[in-house]
C-alpha cells in the first residue's frame, strides 16, 4: 500500500463502498480476519462495516497509522469491470 499517512487516506477514500478482507494483529500471536465494507474515512481513522452474520460487532475503526505499520492489512475485492459498448 502507500508509504505516507496522506497517501493511505487518499487511497482509502477512493475505495469507500467497496468490500474488503481485513487482517488485524490481535496481540499474543493472534490474527483477526474479518470481512465487510469500507464505509467512511475521517481525518485520523477509517470505519469498516462488518458482515453481521460473521461478526458480533457492527463496525470497527482503525487508524491510518495501523495500516502504515502493518498492524492492519486490507485486501479489497476485485470490482467487476463494466464494458462500455461503442455505437
From TrEMBL:
InterPro entries: Protein_Veg. It comes from the Bacteria. It holds the Pfam family VEG. NCBIfam families: BflmStimVeg. This is Uncharacterized protein Veg.
Amino acid at each position: 500500500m502507500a508509504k505516507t499517512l496522506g497517501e493511505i487516506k487518499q487511497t482509502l477514500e477512493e475505495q469507500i463502498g467497496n468490500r474488503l478482507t481485513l487482517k488485524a494483529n490481535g496481540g499474543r500471536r493472534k490474527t483477526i480476519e474479518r470481512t465487510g465494507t469500507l464505509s467512511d474515512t475521517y481525518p485520523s481513522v477509517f470505519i469498516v462495516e462488518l458482515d453481521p452474520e460473521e461478526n458480533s460487532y457492527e463496525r470497527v475503526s482503525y487508524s491510518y497509522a495501523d495500516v502504515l505499520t502493518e498492524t492492519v492489512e486490507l485486501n479489497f475485492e476485485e470490482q467487476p469491470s463494466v464494458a462500455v459498448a461503442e455505437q
